[in-house]
Specification:
With 272 residues, the chain is of the alpha+beta class. The protein is built from 7 helices and 10 strands. The strands form 2 sheets. Strands 1, 6, 7, 8, 9 and 10 form a 6-stranded antiparallel β-sheet that branches. The protein has a 4-stranded antiparallel β-sheet with strand order 2-3-4-5. Strand 3 and strand 4 form a beta hairpin. The protein is elongated. It comes from Streptomyces hygroscopicus. This is Tat pathway signal sequence domain protein. Keywords: Membrane, Transmembrane, Transmembrane helix. InterPro entries: Cu_amine_oxidase_N-reg.
Length: 272
């Protein structure tokens, strides 16, 4: 039985994985290869490269001209090391993106402004630990697709000032839900998505035209991870590249794990 399941999981791209036993196995595989944090894009507050937050409603906002909003009024605040309140999260996210940062960065779709990943309560410095009245700071993380940079903005919630900016290259946090959906959109539009579309039609009788017809879970791919891959994925790691677990909504899995979507270059490659 174990050999049969492994054989099913290694079938070529486009084979629909069906049946309860195989679905359980596919779920186990996902858990085994997903990086720490939420690789599925479900909202979390993990912070840093190990955490990601799914930001809702960004797709529509990206279609509008970028506008830097005034900092919102100080709303309900937490105490001590309490998690950030909704008001604090909104305030931090607004303060973190200056006019210059918005103008010089791009999100996953190429629109102005960075791709927001997560918003978390920042850690205290060693000399602040255990003291009364320690400041509440938020850490807002982004991916800037223009420079392929992971950007961390630290915001002092009391003063309303950005107190630190850290930029790193080659750091790839788990993709958000929006990034996984964009990867699916690119795959559907590419010739290498032919097998996915054929199997979707076999399973549903309908044409696959939109990412929201699928449930997608993304995880980061780096060149050389278990498979050197073709030259087309050599930049993965510096570029933001993902692989997808793909499922018909309320239906069977479709195996797309051999495909790598380079979100930075908007290209698709197949692993051998």
């Amino acid at each position: 039985m174990g050999e049969d399941v492994r054989e099913l999981m290694h079938r070529h791209l486009g084979k629909v994985v069906a049946g309860a036993a195989v679905a359980v196995t596919a779920t186990a595989v996902m858990i085994g290869v997903t990086l720490p944090g939420s690789a599925s894009g479900e909202e979390s507050h993990g912070g840093g490269p190990q955490g990601s937050a799914a930001e809702q409603g960004q797709a529509a906002a990206r279609q509008l001209p970028g506008v830097v909003e005034s900092a919102p009024e100080q709303g309900r605040t937490g105490t001590g090391r309490d998690p950030l309140t909704d008001d604090e999260i909104k305030r931090a996210q607004t303060l973190a993106v200056s006019r210059d940062f918005r103008a010089s960065s791009e999100d996953v779709k190429g629109a102005k402004g960075p791709q927001r990943l997560s918003t978390d309560l920042a850690e205290l410095s060693p000399d602040e630990v255990g003291t009364s009245g320690a400041p509440r700071r938020a850490e807002v993380t982004y991916y800037d697709y223009r420079d392929d940079a992971y950007v961390i903005k630290t915001v002092d919630l009391a003063s309303g000032k950005v107190t630190g900016t850290e930029t790193q290259h080659g750091v790839q946090p788990p993709p958000t839900r929006d990034e996984a959906k964009e990867a699916a959109r690119l795959l559907i539009a590419d010739k290498l998505g032919k097998g996915l579309k054929e199997d979707f039609k076999d399973a549903t009788g309908k044409e696959l035209t939109r990412p929201d017809q699928l449930t997608v879970n993304g995880f980061v791919y780096r060149a050389g991870e278990g498979n050197p891959g073709p030259a087309s994925v050599a930049d993965c790691g510096e570029h933001r590249c993902v692989r997808l677990f793909t499922r018909v909504v309320n239906g069977p899995w479709i195996d797309t794990r051999k495909l790598v979507i380079d979100l930075s270059a908007h290209k698709i490659a197949r692993l051998s």
